[in-house]
């Protein structure tokens, strides 16, 4: 048994500030010639909002996968659960708009599996990028991650980039 404690994290800033300053700034930078400043950690997911029919562009942290999908993102944002598996999206990735299909993984055990592989590869310092707070020196067990994911509503988005 480890001395590791893990929980879903919340944004460090109030929702209004995130919605009106942080996210718009991220969108602007990711679409600009200065995208290199954040492109290693963020991408934009452009999708059609099911309620309004409008195209929305959502910034999200990601990593390149070694397990099937081209890119994987983790988020606790409500817009992600509105996506349907197989839905076509456009990713703004490293300054380029690329078409992709998405698989939405909401099963906490499957999400925990992807999270554990990510943390083993990237290290515990990367935990905030995937909406987790981790206390301790060890990568949490799959069971610990499953409980945190279930409590925090974290989903995995698996993107297959269309060449």
Write up what this structure looks like.
The protein is an alpha+beta fold and 163 residues long. The protein has a single domain (7-161), classed as Pnp Oxidase, Chain A, CATH 2.30.110. The protein is 28% helix and 33% strand. The strands form two sheets. The protein has a six-stranded antiparallel β-barrel. It has a two-stranded antiparallel ribbon with strand order 1-7. Strand 5 and strand 6 (96-105) form a beta hairpin. The mean pLDDT is 89.
Q: What's the layout of helices and strands?
A:
Elements: E1 5-8, H1 15-30, E2 42-48, E3 55-64, E4 71-75, H2 78-81, E5 88-93, E6 96-105, H3 108-122, E7 132-135, H4 142-152, E8 155-161
Antiparallel strand pairs: 1-7, 2-3, 2-5, 3-4, 4-8, 5-6, 6-8
Helix pairs in contact: 3-4
How big is the Rg? 15 Å
Average of pLDDT: 89
Largest sheet: 6 strands, antiparallel, barrel
Strand order of the largest sheet: 2-3-4-8-6-5
Alpha-beta classification: alpha+beta
The number of helical segments is 4
Measured between the Cα atoms of the first and last residue, the distance is: 44 Å
CATH superfamily: Electron Transport, Fmn-binding Protein, Chain A
> Helix fraction?
25-40%
InterPro entries: Split_barrel_FMN-bd
List keywords for this structure.
6-stranded antiparallel beta barrel; globular; alpha+beta; Pnp Oxidase, Chain A; single chain; 8 strands; two-stranded antiparallel sheet; 163 residues
Concise account of the structure shown:
The protein has 163 residues and is an alpha+beta fold. The protein is built from 4 helices and 8 strands, in the order βαβββαββαβαβ.
